[in-house]
Amino acid sequence: xxxxxxxxxxxxGLTAGLMSNTLPSFSHSxxxxxxxxxxxxxxxxxxxxxxxxxxxxEERPSPISRDFVPDDxxxxxxxxxxxxxxxxxxxxxxEEYLQESDWISQLAEKEGKIAGIVAFFPIExxxxxxNNLEKLADNTLVKGIRRMGDPDELVASYAFQESxxxxxxxxxxxxxxxxxxxxxxxxxxxxKFPDMTFVVNHLxxxxxxxxxxxxxxKAMQAVAERPNVYCKLSGLLTRCEDNQKNSQTLKPxxxxxxxxxxxDRMVFASDWPVLTLGGTFEHWLQILDEVLGDFKKRExxxxxxxxxxxAYRL
Length: 314
What we know:
By secondary structure, this protein is of the alpha/beta class.
């Protein structure tokens, strides 16, 4: 795959230019905006606090410690051509993961934009929970699994690899939610399952507040060399200080990730409503519109709509 941008150099050579204050300028002469592009949002959460238990919301109250349902999301995205939603497990207690998927399936019967579910599953338990994995796989909305945990422990776990074999048999993808160190630790697993789809959450979680650059670049470039890995264009606004929430600061992270993965393996995501802790849906899309100002309409359609269909079998 050819790099998207000729000004980016391979390896750490891009650090001097892309990760500096002398960023290239782009033309914004196009006659369309992202508001003209159909959107598949590959990372959306819903919850009702009285329905399931969410310790991370109930024990540490925050502005998002309340119910969030599809109607709320559709209001927040009403200015855009939102076509499809991929729900991602929302951190309920582990024992309730089947109930969560069942509830989202019920919501999908009323809201047809819900096109897929990335469910929780205790992957580290291996064959002993095979029956529950079969239940998830029988739900045609379930497209993948997300299981966060210590990557070194998971990579060393035979049971974890047993579960991945079962998931692969059912064509379920795995969302991987790690920063630079975790991504590097996880590479042996990706290499053992070259036919399985992996999806990096939130641009590999760069620490924008602390200006993390080189370690994040190395990890992202390494994982992107595996052609079965996609990357979600999301998660930056909640990793910024207020004065960093602009296209000038975030452009280097966005463009270098696209250079590594190409426009054919990047998928748009909002991380709504967690996103609202750092900004609005509109704010995030405005930043992307500015950063991607010289991209072709076909490339934007791939990133914002089409690539998700391959990553999640929509």
